[in-house]
Specification:
About 25% of the residues lie in helices and about 40% in strands. It has helices at about 1-20, 135-145, 165-175, 175-180, and strands at about 25-30, 45-50, 55-60, 70-75, 80-95, 95-105, 115-125, 125-130, 150-155, 155-160, 185-189. The protein has an 8-stranded antiparallel barrel with strand order 2-3-4-5-6-7-8-11. A 3-stranded mixed β-sheet has the order 1-10-9, covered by helices on one side. Residues about 1-10 and about 15-20 have low confidence and may be disordered. It is of the alpha+beta class and about 190 residues long. It contains 4 helices and 11 strands, in the order αββββββββαββααβ.
Amino acid sequence: MRQEFGVRAGLFLAGAVLLWLAGCVPYFQHPLTPVDGGVDQRLLGTWRWKKDGGRGYIHVGRRGSSAGLKVVMVEFGEGGAMKVSELSGHVSSIGRNRYLNLRWNRPVQESGRGYLIVKYRFSGKGLGISLMNTDVVKSAVKSGELGGKIEKRGWLNTVVVTETGERLRRFIGANDGELFPEMKYLQGE
């Protein structure tokens, strides 16, 4: 059963990285909250997944002496091919829910695109992560519920949310279940 979770989480994360690179997740011009000085110590360390023909690791640590986080993802594919991604960010809370506000550092072509907001939680299964449902955000931008725009990038649309502050937090808090429908788990080292 544990191996099955690892395989599914690995496939999910590898797919998530590809989707992020392809622009299939919404980007936010502003984080949910400013950096407040708190780091969830449970995040710090190495998290892993395995999948057919490959495996990967997510290393989470402090960004220098600041309250920010540095996240490095290393994926080993078939034949030993390695992909490395690096993000920086911080933790936000809305009620009992916890989120990561992440910005790409590497690959360079992704930097400057804004924040990715990822929900996380801990359970007996490990570190659970959930990527945001783009369709829910796209609908909110189209209806004017959230400030933002939909940009055409090649054959894909990218949703860029410009909303800030309390209105953004209220939207995410009220729509958490729809925005983050599936949690996948990573195992700690």
